[in-house]
Specification:
Layout: E1 4-10, H1 14-31, H2 35-52, E2 61-67, E3 70-75, E4 80-86, H3 93-108, H4 112-158, H5 169-186, E5 191-198, H6 201-208, H7 210-227, E6 234-239, E7 242-247, H8 251-264, E8 269-276, H9 286-302, E9 308-312, E10 321-324, H10 328-332
Helix pairs in contact: 1-2, 6-7, 7-8
């Protein structure tokens, strides 16, 4: 059987709550319910309604329902309810209709002072709710910023070589891949990959000790950072004595930057460079790009170390072009 709604009221302020409880008890009497049991149930009801926000300025809606021979109250978004009493028998439809009209007339006769109080309490409630919500949002924003900072720091540490502070191999794979795809897609600017290997580093480490070796690695780090443009190019340490730079420039500028490193490291570095540009064939891959730099580095080491070899990558109108950086001859005689 579908319930019949006898009364529906907003319980924003204390008089609303008191009036609603009074109407509930009045309905029990008019319908022949047990007034003693209903009074006990009404005390429990008042406590539950207060817990749900009644009489705080919150616009809590409560309904008095008649379902068969049962009288109950329902409230809130989750339709919480409480039985008030069981009637001896279901009331006649005329009795129910008359009771509904009576309750409607009673709630519609509003006291102006009561209306003002209700409006003031609801305004206060909404203001407090807004202030509380803004404070909670501010706290959430601070928490989010803290988590973002922690995440950024975690990602930075995950991509950083702990000894030198340079980007590591993991970061190399990601950032080189992004730069390569962008360059090949846009076809407007060149990109150079510089692979570097400290010459005879193992002998240096064995002869002078690991502390000196670490200082030597950091000297190489300083040389790389001096050569690249901050927030434009990238410098990496793979581990051991292997390093790399990604330069957003052609092979000539890459040669100049490699020469800076070579001078600072007193020509004790072997360097290989590969370059792509708008003329590079579309099918050229990042793996081939790395391979060309590796090949150039191998040639630099194989031909005497302490030198720079450049390999231009997959030009459509010619075979791969490998040559020594032209400034190297002058440097070798300094």
């Amino acid at each position: 059987m579908e319930p019949v709604e006898l009364l529906k009221q907003n319980l924003a302020i204390e008089p609303d709550l008191q009036n609603f409880i009074g109407f509930v008890l009045e309905c029990v009497n008019k319908l022949g319910g047990n007034p003693f049991a209903s009074s006990i149930a009404s005390l429990d009801l008042m406590q539950k309604l207060r817990s749900a926000g009644a009489a705080t300025g919150f616009p809590l809606l409560a309904s008095l329902l008649l379902q068969g021979h049962q009288l109950k109250v329902q409230w809130g978004e989750h339709a919480e309810h409480l039985k008030i009493t069981n009637l001896a028998q279901p009331p006649k439809p005329d009795t129910v209709a008359q009771l509904r009209r009576y309750l409607q007339n009673s709630t519609e006769s509003a006291d102006p002072a009561l209306l003002l109080q209700r409006n003031a309490e609801m305004v206060r409630y909404f203001d407090e709710t807004r202030a509380r919500t803004e404070k909670e949002l501010e706290a959430l924003q601070q928490t989010l910023e803290k988590l973002q900072t922690e995440l950024h720091e975690s990602l930075r540490q995950a991509e950083t070589d702990p000894l030198t502070g340079l980007l590591n191999r993991r970061a190399f794979d990601e950032k080189l891949g992004q730069a390569f795809r962008h360059t090949m897609r846009q076809k407007v600017s060149p990109l150079s990959l510089i692979m570097l290997d400290l010459d005879h580093f193992k002998e240096i480490n064995d002869q002078f000790g690991h502390q000196f070796g670490d200082a030597y690695l950091n000297k190489m780090t300083h040389a790389l950072r001096s050569a690249i443009r901050k927030d434009v190019d990238f410098a990496f340490r793979f581990g051991g004595d292997e390093f790399a730079m990604v330069i957003f420039a052609d092979y000539r500028q890459a040669c100049n930057k490699a020469m800076q490193v070579l001078r600072l490291m007193e020509t004790k570095v072997s360097i290989g460079i590969s370059t792509i540009n708008p003329s590079t064939a579309d099918g050229f891959t990042v793996e081939e790009f790395i391979l060309h730099a590796d090949n150039a580095l191998y040639e630099a080491k194989n031909s005497g170390r302490g030198r720079i070899v450049v390999e231009l990558c997959a030009l459509p109108d010619s075979s791969n072009c490998q040559f020594s950086c032209p400034q190297i001859a002058n440097l070798a005689h300094d």
